[in-house]
Amino acid sequence: MTRLEELAAGLSGVRERIQRACTAAGRDVHDVTLVAVTKTFPAEDVRLLAGLGVGDVAENRDQEAAPKRERCADLAVRWHFVGQVQTNKAASVASYADVVHSVDRARLVTALGRAAARAGRQVTALVQVRLDDDPGRGGAAPDDVARIAATVAGTEGLRLGGLMAVAPLGGDPAAAFDRLAALAAAVRREHPEARWISAGMSTDLEAAVSAGATHLRVGTAILGSRPPLR
Ligand SMILES: *Cc1c(COP(=O)(O)O)cnc(C)c1O
Description:
Elements: H1 3-25, E1 33-37, H2 43-51, E2 56-59, H3 62-71, E3 78-81, H4 90-96, E4 99-103, H5 106-118, E5 123-129, H6 145-153, E6 158-165, H7 173-190, E7 196-198, H8 205-210, E8 215-218, H9 220-223
Helix pairs in contact: 4-5, 6-7
The structure holds pyridoxal-5'-phosphate (PLP).
């Protein structure tokens, strides 16, 4: 199999799963955006995926994302950033990311907004919520979400898109995504335009669709397993 055939097979499998999950949940498949997580894979894979109709790709490390984005500058794909952003990397990320899913503190909001405004860009920001007690994995505590969302909404250069979460390791993803959906509904009462819910990965996308996710971040099921982190 060529790499193109591998990616086409992975993609069609994931699209079928999304279609089935939408049917089961009574949702329109057009209300769910598939974001292909291309971290650790080469720029050539992004190019092949774009050729297969993928319009959204995601990365999680600035050192890898910035040059990859550069090599794919001619492609009409939206770039999502889904990893923890160090404040000193905010300006770089804001220079190419269309969407940052991992906004979890006011200082980062300020840094991203300043850089985006300076670059004349509008970056969609999602507030990442931490649904377990492990601060090491990033995300704001649920009690801080309203305050950070309001800060994003009031920051030039940023547009509040909604919320994002990763299901806790070993927990029940359905319960986690229901909790995220409730938090997202509370944010929408204050900010009706913030309709995105970014949830669901290769192993739990069905639970995310069922809970109302609008954006699924899927890597392994499309691109294959990643080399272990060194
Ligand atoms: C890597 C990553 C994904 C994709 O995970 P898979 O299990 O490979 O689908 C989704 N979201 C975030 C935040 C990630 O870092």
